[in-house]
Amino acid sequence: MAKKLKVGFVGIGGIAQGCHVPGWQKLEDVEMVAAADVNKKVLAAGGELAGIPTNRLYTDYRKMLAEVDMDIVDVCTPNCVHKDPTIAAFKKGRHVIVEKPITTSVANAKQMIAAGKQARKLLMVAQSMRFGDDALAMKRWVDEGLVGDIYWGRASYLRPRGVPAWGSFISKELSAGGPAYDLAVHILDLCMWLMGHPEPVSVSANIYLEISNKPSLMKHNPRNFTVPDELAVGFIRFANGASLSLETSWAINSTQPNNGIFLAGTKGGIQNNPPTLVREEVGMLTDTTVQVNPDRGIASHHEEIRQFVEAIRKGKPSPVPGEQALLTQRILDGIYKSAKLGKEVKV
Ligand SMILES: NC(=O)c1ccc[n+]([C@@H]2O[C@H](COP(=O)([O-])OP(=O)(O)OC[C@H]3O[C@@H](n4cnc5c(N)ncnc54)[C@H](O)[C@@H]3O)[C@@H](O)[C@H]2O)c1
Q: Judging by DSSP bridges, how do beta strands 200-208 and 345-346 pair with one another?
């Protein structure tokens, strides 16, 4: 067997323990050798789960990078702590997988991409939704030409009562934004990937914060809610003439959660949950639905990690390169700028 690839974590909290550690554990040619986390309790629990010796657990990621030899750095910190560890890891000549969103501004994303290029190492953004069975079914329809040119889409990720009560999500200092950063980034990435990454031109958006900072049924402490949005809605125009409607919430007075994308193409329409292709066949409008693995949420994280390792081993491009995440980051920046100015903005 080839020499094992060594992985070190920066941030070993919720997503690292729940999805990344089991993902790395599934791969025989990988070993988790070190972790850094500013929270000592989380560090101890994460280190134990990953089987990392206690003398390889650090509260300062810079010290870990200086002392431990590794091939891959897995950045699972809050959004505002993605850029610096990523750049520090590249300076040490490591490959980097960083959780979504890539970061909190276009300027940061450009620095991260440039650092990876300079180090000649891979940067992968953990856009896990791309690796689920439903996404792969939709991608296959697109690649087989059954959808044609995609000219409009609608991306919804609405939780009626789903403000995160755990982790860093509702802290402006740590996460920068609300559901736009947490949820919309997933469905934006999915749509952009299926649409072939068209160049975004402009965004018109509004953000709202009406109910999350009041006591209610929700489990979080409303006083800790410091991000600017609980609902973001927007309309994005692309250079190829395509457009996308976007809506995402953690809290809204509506009956149903809704997590779904729909893309309209010249030959067919596709949607997820469950993955369905709608098109004209033998003179009728028909739909085809694919049966998917119900456990695909977790499986998609494992698959993203497997594909990253495969890309490193085989010298292939990053499965989710920073340049693609930069397009999404331009849209996210545009959402907040447009909402602030109250008008459509160029991105
Ligand atoms: N792909 C997905 O479906 C998904 C799901 C959840 C979270 N995420 C992303 O993962 C990231 C982390 O989210 P989480 O839910 O695991 O949060 P979390 O708060 O549970 O874990 C983050 C950890 O980072 C640590 N940390 C903070 N600053 C640090 C620093 N300077 N150095 C070292 N460690 C530091 C914290 O102590 C914490 O343990 C976020 O960017 C989030 O958007 C992605």
A: antiparallel
